[in-house]
Design a protein that fits this description.
- With about 240 residues, this protein is an all-beta fold.
- Helix content is about 0%, strand content about 55%.
- The chain has two domains: about 10-135, Jelly Rolls (Sandwich); about 140-235, Jelly Rolls (Sandwich), CATH 2.60.120.
- The chain has one helix spanning about 155; strands spanning about 1-5, 10-15, 20-25, 40-50, 55-60, 65-70, 75-80, 85, 90-95, 100-105, 115-120, 130-135, 145-150, 160, 165-170, 175-180, 185-195, 195-200, 205, 210-215, 220-225, 225-235.
- The chain is globular.
Amino acid sequence: MVKIIHRAHDRGHADHGWLNANHSFSFANYYHPAKTHFGMLRVLNDDIIAPGRGFGNHPHDNMEIVTIPLRGSLKHTDSMGNSELIIAGEVQSMSAGKGIFHSEYNASADEEINLLQIWVFPKLQNIEPRYEQMIFEKEDRKNKFQTLVSPNNKVDGGMWINQDAWFSLSDLEEGNELTYKVKLDTNGVYLFLIEGEIEVSDELLVKRDAIGVYDTDNLVVKANKNSTILLIEVPMN
């Protein structure tokens, strides 16, 4: 097993006033040569957006984008004709494909929103853009893995993604242990600890720490405290 540790305090940080952002990988004005990507995982941004503020209309192409609101609500509009409200408990999955424009704003006039925005390099280039969002019930991830996106979503559940990638969430209670089995032997797993404290691969992780592992067929996670865990399995090349 090969492992890479990313501590929360070592992330890139940018405070624009309306946007307080932490970057797990090189993004915008933050560049770290050892943190440009993890396999096909290109971006994991932990953003806090002020009330009523957000990202104006801007382009994307050939990127898979998954957005997970942790608290608050996000107003999304795009050139595909979608105009949606995404709230905590929902997840958005979008293929930018051959090109889209979209905007994202905090839908609240008085409360911040905290969201994770994640980009994955696509498997196929220049596909038709695609948009989907889905509600995920908390009970369905209590002490187990809940699939958010999958290339085989009809079998594995969740929403479809244009990559051999699986996103999973788990609310693991203190004292419980879970084993994640890697789907493809050419894939690695990036674990991002949203809340809590866990032990994984002989490492202690606390809130917003992350570990990437590859050349292994499973990952064992033990919760020292009640924890919320995001797992992202992606091809390594």
